[in-house]
Every structure is written in structure tokens, then in C-alpha cells.
Amino acid sequence: MTLTQATEMTRQQVLTLMACMLSTAHVDGVSPQELALMKSFYEQSGHTDLPPFADNEGAYGDPMAMAAQCASDSGFAEQLVLMSFMTAYADGHLTDAERAHVLLIAARAGLAEARTQRLLQQVKDTLIGAIAMIPDTESVASIAKGL
What we know:
This protein has helices at residues 11-26, 32-43, 63-69, 74-89, 96-108, 113-131, 137-146. By secondary structure, the protein is mostly helical. Helix 3 crosses helix 5 (96-108) and helix 4 (74-89) packs across helix 6 (113-131).
């Protein structure tokens, strides 16, 4: 789950990801961290024919309709859910509303709830792994509990 994986995506997949990431960020207001993640992903997509980056909800299309269109590609559907969860966590926490929103995206993309829960755990594990190098183990444990 890296931003460089975007180079293997089609133009439509990039736009679908952006629509879902943006809709997730807008659930509780777009934070600077969420904006930075989305902009970085967009700019690293490898596609030169994309419209200019926009952070207004709906700029790339209807996220739920676009998620439903990718239901036949489970690999991309999983990437969509992973990046939506990463967007939600970019500001340091996943709200109940963001979680519910990403679960709805996952359902529209054809993913079973059990699989979506495993993807959420994968995101948490990735985030914990990223902070595990902090020498203050009590702080790491405290942060991990908050995920």
C-alpha cells in the first residue's frame, strides 16, 4: 500500500480513488494532512492527462457510483478501501462517521464487511509499524491504543 502503486492504475482508477478519498476527507472537514496525502497521491499517479488537482467534494465524480463500478475488480476495490482508510487516518484519528463512510464505500465496491475489517486492521498495523521506531515505547503504546 504505497503511493507509487498509483503508476499502475488507469486514469479512471485514479479519478475513482480521488473521488472516494475526497468524500472521506469531507466527512469531518478536510485537514491539511488529508489534503497533503491526496495531493501527493494525485501528483504521483503518473498520468499527465488528469484535470488539475481539486479538493472540493465531487470534483472527480460521484464516489459511491464510482465505487460501485469497480466491484468487478476486487484488487482495485481493496486498494480503494485502503486509501480511503488512510485518508481518514491522515489527521491522526478515524472518526465513527469516517469509518461508516468507508464501510459504505467498501460495500458499494462489493467487499464483504469481514474483508473490510481486515483491511482496516492492515491500515492500523501499517500506521503502528510507522511509529514503532519512536524510542518512547509508552507513547507508541498510547498512540496504538487510539487507533
